[in-house]
C-alpha cells in the first residue's frame, strides 16, 4: 500500500475516535519499563530517548534472575552484563528531538530518556487504522 493518500488528512491517524493521546515529559534517566499496546506514533519535539523493542513473540524476562529489574535503566544494565539472557535480542534505537517513531501493535518496548524529553504519543486502535488507511488508499478525500 502506498502512503500517498495518507498524508493528505491528519484525521487518518488523529481522528476523534483515536484510542489514546498521551503528553509525556521526563528527566534524564527516567523512562518506562517494558509494556505493549496498540499502534502508537511517538512524536518528540524536545529531548532524546533510547528505545528497546521486542516483537510480539519476544520476551523481556531475564533468565537466571530471582527478581526482575524494575526500571529501564536497571534492566539495560542487567541485560548488558550478560547479553545471552534473551532468545531474541531487543532492537535498539535512539530517537532525537524533532522525530517521530511508530511502534506497531503488540510490540513490547521500554524507553530510557537520555536527557530531559517532552513529546506526544498517540495510540490508535488497529481496526480504525486499517479502515482509514484502506479508505485513503481508494480515495484520499474520503477519510
Key traits:
alpha+beta; 2 domains; globular; 4-stranded antiparallel beta sheet; 3 helices
Describe this structure in words.
This protein is an alpha+beta fold and 143 residues long. The protein folds into 2 domains: 1-15 and 124-143, no CATH class; 19-37 and 45-119, no CATH class. 19% of the residues lie in helices and 35% in strands. The chain contains 3 helices and 8 strands. It has helices at 11-14, 72-81, 126-138; strands spanning 20-26, 31-35, 40-46, 48-54, 91-96, 99-103, 108-113, 117-123. It has a 4-stranded antiparallel sheet with strand order 1-8-3-6, with no helix packed on it. The radius of gyration is 17 Å and the shape is globular.
Tell the overall outline.
globular
Find the structural class using helix and strand composition.
alpha+beta
What can be said about the biggest beta sheet? 4 strands, antiparallel
Q: Biggest sheet, strands in spatial order?
A: 1-8-3-6
By DSSP, the count of extended strands is: 8
Secondary-structure element string: HEEEEHEEEEH
Question: Treating each run of at least 4 consecutive H or I residues as one helix, how many helices?
Answer: 3
Mean pLDDT: 79
Low-confidence stretches: none
| Radius of gyration, taken over Cα atoms and rounded to an integer in Å | 17 Å
- Residue fraction in strands: 25-35%
Number of domain modules: 2
N→C terminal distance: 16 Å
Please estimate the helix content: 10-25%
Amino acid at each position: 500500500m502506498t502512503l500517498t493518500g495518507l498524508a493528505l488528512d491528519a484525521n487518518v491517524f488523529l481522528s476523534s475516535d483515536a484510542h489514546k493521546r498521551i503528553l509525556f515529559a521526563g528527566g534524564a534517566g527516567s523512562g518506562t519499563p517494558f509494556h505493549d499496546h496498540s499502534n502508537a506514533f511517538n512524536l518528540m519535539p524536545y529531548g532524546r530517548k533510547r528505545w528497546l523493542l521486542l516483537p510480539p513473540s519476544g520476551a523481556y524476562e531475564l533468565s537466571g534472575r530471582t527478581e526482575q529489574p524494575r526500571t529501564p535503566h536497571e534492566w539495560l544494565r542487567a541485560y548488558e552484563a550478560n547479553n545471552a539472557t534473551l532468545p531474541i535480542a531487543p532492537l535498539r534505537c535512539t530517537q532525537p528531538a524533532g522525530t517521530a517513531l511508530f511502534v506497531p501493535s503488540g510490540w513490547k518496548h521500554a524507553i530510557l530518556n537520555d536527557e530531559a524529553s517532552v513529546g506526544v504519543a498517540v495510540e490508535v486502535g488497529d481496526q480504525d487504522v486499517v479502515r482509514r488507511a484502506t479508505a485513503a488508499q481508494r480515495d484520499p478525500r474520503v477519510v
